[in-house]
Amino acid sequence: MIEPDGIDRVALVVGAGSGIGRATALLFADRGWRVLTADLSLDSVRSLAAERSAVTVVGDRGWDATDPSAVDELLTRAVGAHGRLDTVVTTVGWTAMTKFLDETPDYWRRIVDLNLMSAIYIAAAAAKAMQASGGSIVFTSSEAGKVGTSGESVYSATKGGVIALAKSLAREFARYGIRVNAVAPGVTDTPLLASQAGEDTLASIVRAVPLRRLGKPEEIASALYFLASEEAGYITGQTLCVGGGLTMSS
């Protein structure tokens, strides 16, 4: 039984419709937080909200995190829902496993927008919302952003950018009492992974992981929750790798 520790605290989880984001929203709710959720898929977060009374959906629409005006509106509505916002966690991201020379500029722009620009837009809007009261922002990066991944070159570059963004904003936002951190998952058993990798690829990945298995969304959620919570009150500008030891030497 998880003991609640977030009474009267409010979290916004962006990208909560599936995988890591869904697990994160549920964990916050089980810890006693009031959880606001947003996703491009409205149906997915409505389904999530039906599972926990503490989880609500922001607005009656899907939210495009690559649209800065939409992100600004999302944060305004999120603050208005409970009159405060203590943490913002973003798990927005996407990639496909393709060869770099087979990719197009349109594909690269999509990857950059989804994985890096969305984090920038969310951080800017979140910081404005929490500037007077303090709080925390937690990004979802990737171990690919630390070591690079064949077949995910631009994705790796964007996730490396998220790590640098967390460090830089942590320095800028410290004066406002806003902590900024990131979690870098390794290969995690999510619907996205299942759609991208075949059995042979997954078996090869598992052999390279010291713990010899894929990560679970709930394990990544635990790291995101920790960095968002007061338990990590003296931690900022850090990236926590959760990948079964794959990048322990990096």
Describe this structure in words.
The chain is of the alpha/beta class and 250 residues long. The protein has one domain: 3-Layer(aba) Sandwich (Rossmann fold), CATH 3.40.50.720. Helix content is 46%, strand content 14%. The chain has nine helices and seven strands. The protein has helices spanning 19-30, 42-49, 68-82, 105-130, 144-147, 153-173, 191-196, 199-208, 217-228; strands at 10-14, 34-38, 55-57, 87-90, 135-140, 178-185, 239-242. Strands 3-2-1-4-5-6-7 form a seven-stranded parallel β-sheet, sandwiched between helices. α4 (105-130) links the parallel β4 (87-90) and β5 (135-140). The longest helix is centred in the middle third of the chain and has 26 residues, at 105-130. The protein is globular. The model has no long low-confidence stretch (mean pLDDT 92).
